[in-house]
Automatic annotation (TrEMBL):
InterPro entries: dCache_1, HATPase_C_sf, HATPase_dom, His_kinase_dom, HisK_dim/P_dom, HisK_dim/P_sf, Sensor-like_sf, Sig_transdc_His_kin-like_C. It catalyses: ATP + protein L-histidine = ADP + protein N-phospho-L-histidine. PROSITE patterns: HIS_KIN. It comes from Palleronia aestuarii. This is C4-dicarboxylate transport sensor protein DctB.
Length: 620
């Protein structure tokens, strides 16, 4: 069995030279790896350049925060007056208190003023053991520049505190005469926290190459190169710092990167005891000829490179294996072609038979679609007939009340007419005219009632058009006035003004009358029904709610109240079709209908219809 398999592989190797496939795959893998490596190097360089730019902005913003303060302090009248009298150290305690307050507000390390001799006559730390008051700083460049009329800055270690800081100074001038100098010492630690870009290192070197500001503590106050003799003299004269305490920075050039970048060995920001390879970049700064430098940690880059290299190698091995497998399977496929050819004819016959079956099923489905459409049309006509029958039934139920509604004004008309005739014969035309006016008003009332009944009894159409809601609610209440009066119900209507919905006037009136009638029927036997009809807009929809204060509907009954022939009324008081018909009418309008418990007792029936702008109704 094994010998047979090896023989087949040998035959495949003779027919398809694997020695050609293998070099091609390896060449493609090598090209892909070097292409990725070049792209990754470019990305690292771009990211390092962007990081260096962000650090420069951070540095500029930090110093700009304090740069204007010395000149601002120098214009304060209290400072000018204090220096105008050539004060001596220790005589300006009130000014020192003011400087201490300014120092706290500005979050600076120290604030002090120097007289023309360079001696501090007032300082924010005047009450501390290491007070600057009485100390002479004429050797500092910030004094020499400021006493000459120029605002300046200077980095150095405090001669009293020994703390690093950046000194900003400005001259105090009155009438063109320089009286002294205001000096601020701003903190460096906060800036170094902002420059902590671990695992990368950001640091600033001065003209001597000393890392005076560094986000990496290992590089702080170390020399990145030898200091020439001239620079040493400047450092010693200005007492910037003690060169004897400045050790060499643990940096070594490790080689060259693409596009002229330099590689350096430097301590890892995350673990200073370990050395790592970094991409070294730098920028010239406008501040005191400083240089901003970045050591971009390449550990993550090399990890990605190894991962991608391993993935490409694994992919190359997988491709070679797949090619070998494909060559094996090719022969097997050739062997199966004949079998498939035989199966094709069988499949063609099966497809032809299936096609005939599908054609028959398609004809049957088309017939079912026609039958369904016919059934839907019949259902729609039946629903309209049920609506019409419901309205006629409602008219029958209201017949006694309507008879009273007609008889009462007719009797009054007859009485007023007889009175008018009597007054006319008696020569009292004014009283006759008054009675005839009352007859006219009663006639209008009967005509209005007849108009409501005619519109209600009219067979509704199927059109869904913009319909004003207020007249529909008003007519529904008018038609049910007798029923409402007999029940003693109190009806409150709100929110119907200027509301237009999509629907049919007659069918929507039928829905509202059904809901109001149900609300009356739901009243407790020993209580006066309270019915609330509220209309509210919700975006593009209008919500119509009819609330009663009856006994409510049980939770297990709520899901079934819109089912045909389901009713909670007593036998003989309803067929259970009212809400089902209303539900389908609202659905035909493109709306929804639901029932929910009313807080405090009772039921809330909600009809949601699409809203139409009132101007569209006016246009139509």
């Amino acid at each position: 069995m094994i010998g047979s398999g090896m023989g087949r592989l040998a035959a495949i190797g003779r027919r398809y030279p694997v020695t050609f496939v293998l070099p091609v795959v390896l060449a493609v893998a090598t090209l892909a790896f070097f292409s990725f490596a070049q792209h990754a190097r470019d990305n690292v360089a771009d990211e390092a350049e962007a990081m260096l730019d962000r650090a420069r902005v951070t540095l500029d913003n930090w110093f700009d925060r304090y740069r204007a303060l010395p000149a601002l302090y120098a214009r304060d009248p209290r400072i000018i007056d204090a220096l105008a009298g050539d004060p001596q150290p220790g005589t300006l305690d009130p000014v020192s208190r003011e400087l201490a307050a300014w120092n706290d507000v500005a979050n600076t390390l120290d604030t002090y003023i120097l007289n023309r001799a360079g001696t501090a006559v007032a300082a924010s730390n005047w009450q501390k053991n290491q007070s600057f008051v009485g100390q002479n700083y004429a050797f500092r460049p910030y004094f020499a520049e400021a006493i000459s009329g120029r605002e300046t800055g200077f980095f150095g270690l405090g001669t009293v505190s020994g703390l690093r800081g950046y000194f900003l100074s400005a001259p105090v001038v009155r009438d063109g005469r320089i009286l002294g100098v205001v000096v601020l010492k701003i903190p460096i630690l906060g800036l170094e926290e902002a420059l902590d870009y671990a695992p990368h290192s950001i640091f600033v070197t001065d003209t001597a190459g000393v890392a005076i500001i560094s986000g990496n503590p290992v590089l702080r106050m170390t020399a990145t190169g030898p200091v020439d003799a001239q620079e040493q003299q400047v450092i010693d004269r200005t007492r910037r710092y003690d060169l004897a305490e400045i050790g060499p920075a643990p940096l070594e050039v490790a080689g060259r990167w693409a596009d002229g970048y330099v590689l350096s060995h430097a301590p890892m920001a995350a673990d200073p005891d370990m050395m790592g390879t970094h991409l070294s970049l730098s920028r010239e700064l406008e501040i005191d000829d400083w240089r901003l430098q970045l050591l971009y940690d390449l550990g993550a880059f090399r990890g990605r490179l190894w991962s991608v290299g391993a993935a490409i190698a694994a992919s190359a091995v997988a491709v070679i294996a797949l090619v070998m497998l494909a060559l094996q399977r090719r022969q097997r496929l050739i062997d199966r072609l004949a079998d498939r050819e035989r199966d094709r004819a069988k499949l063609a016959r099966r497809v032809e038979r299936r096609t005939r079956e599908l054609s028959t099923a398609n004809v049957r489905l088309e017939a079912e679609v026609v039958e369904r459409r016919t059934a839907e049309e019949t259902l729609r006509r039946t629903q309209n007939e049920l609506v019409q029958a419901g309205k006629l039934a409602a008219l029958g139920q209201m017949s006694a009340a309507l008879s009273h509604e007609f008889n009462q004004p007719l009797t009054a008309i007859r009485t007023y007419t007889e009175n008018a005739a009597a007054f006319y014969e008696a020569g009292r035309g004014d009283r006759a005219a008054e009675n005839l006016a009352r007859v006219l008003r009663l006639t209008e009332r009967v005509a209005q009632l007849s108009k409501h009944l005619t519109r209600f009894a009219r067979r509704s159409g199927d059109d869904v058009t913009p319909t004003a809601l207020a007249p529909i609610v008003e007519e529904a209440l008018g038609l049910l006035a007798a029923r409402i009066g007999r029940s003693g119900a109190r009806v409150c209507v709100t929110g119907t003004e200027d509301v237009v919905v999509l629907g049919g006037a007659v069918r929507l009136q039928h829905v509202l009358m059904n809901l109001i009638t149900n609300a009356i029927d739901a009243a407790r036997p020993d209580a006066t029904p309270e019915i609330e009809i509220d209309v509210a807009r919700h975006g593009a929809d209008v919500e119509i709610s009819v609330c009663d204060d009856g006994t409510g509907i049980a939770d297990e009954t709520l899901p079934k109240i819109f089912d045909p022939f389901f009713t909670t009324k007593e036998v003989g008081r309803g067929l259970g079709l009212g809400l089902s018909i209303c539900f389908n009418i609202v659905r035909d309008f493109g709306g929804t209908m639901r029932a929910e418990p009313r807080p405090g007792g009772g039921t809330r029936m909600v009809v949601l219809l699409r809203s139409v702008p009132a101007e569209r109704l006016a246009a139509e």
